[in-house]
Amino acid sequence: MEDRAFNQEDLPDSTHESSRARTVPVMNPPFAHHPYRIHQPESMEITGADSNDRAQPVPYLNPNLSLSNPRYEDPVLPEQIDRAQQIPSFPPHTVNAIPHASRMPEPPKRNVQMSQNVSINKAPALIQPTFNTPKMHEDFIESLTCLICKDIFLDPVVSTCSCAITICRDCSVKNKSKCPTCRQRTTYQPNRVVKELVGKIPYNCACGTSYKRDDKEKHEKQCPQIIRNCGLCVFSGNRRQLEDHLYDKHYLNIFYYFAEPVQDRVVSRN
Predict the structure, then answer these.
(1) Which of 56, 57, 51, 59 is nearest to 30 (CA)?
(2) 134-202 in CATH: which number?
(3) Strand 236-237 to strand 228-229: parallel, antiparallel, or no bridges (unpaired)?
(4) What is the pLDDT of residues 192-244, one digit of tens each?
(5) Residue partners of 51: CB distance under 8 A and separation at least 6
(6) Alpha-carbon distance 249 to 63, whole Å?
(7) What is the number of other CB atoms lying within 10 angstroms of the CB of residue 142?
(8) Which helix (H) or strand (E) holds 236?
(9) What is the pTM of this model?
(10) What are the start and end residues of each CATH 3.30.40.10 domain in the chain?
(11) In the predicted structure, residue 60 carries a pLDDT above the cut 70
């Protein structure tokens, strides 16, 4: 038996006709120059009047959406899925190939760097105490004044009785440790809060010097404007006036006067 090449004409006529019936001529679709596919309904014949110049995208079915998933048992969800599947969309691998595909711009990143002048959750500033009027200043000074010497506290102490009165330490000794209000004998303890407040109050002397309460005694020994008593008579004046008075009336040098007690000088003169 000789081998010969297979030829389609050797087949029976029925086989040849069935193979010809299954052969479909390939036609170039219109607008073939477009890089994406064209959706053409099978029941409509494209003519010059019915064809569109603009290509229509092919509906893309998301394979992840499946009604067999148990989380889609709600009867409302299948309708929503069917509606979502009918929305025309481009497959993910063809979006980059479409020249005119519009993309949503990425939202700008939030600038977390804030200006140095802006503070987060800044609390409102508290009202700072100020002495806007002389009356407020007088009331504050009066609250820091001793009831016995009528001067600003010097080494303040507070009584342990029910009155809790604050006076100077020297005044408590002179008052024989008695409360100036209830007149009962009591003990005293240092008042540190009042001492800190008194230490911040400035004193303005007539000589133009400003000092604190703790430096009052030291300044009075050197201040030329402080008023002093003579000690030998009823005269009183500042340092310069007292110096002239001692030299003219008592024939004393001011350096000698401040070097020794007055009683010793008076006895020595007699």
Answers:
(1) 51
(2) 3.30.40.10
(3) antiparallel
(4) 888 888 877 777 777 777 777 777 778 877 787 878 788 788 888 887 888 88
(5) 30
(6) 123
(7) 9
(8) strand 236-237
(9) 0.35
(10) 134-202
(11) no
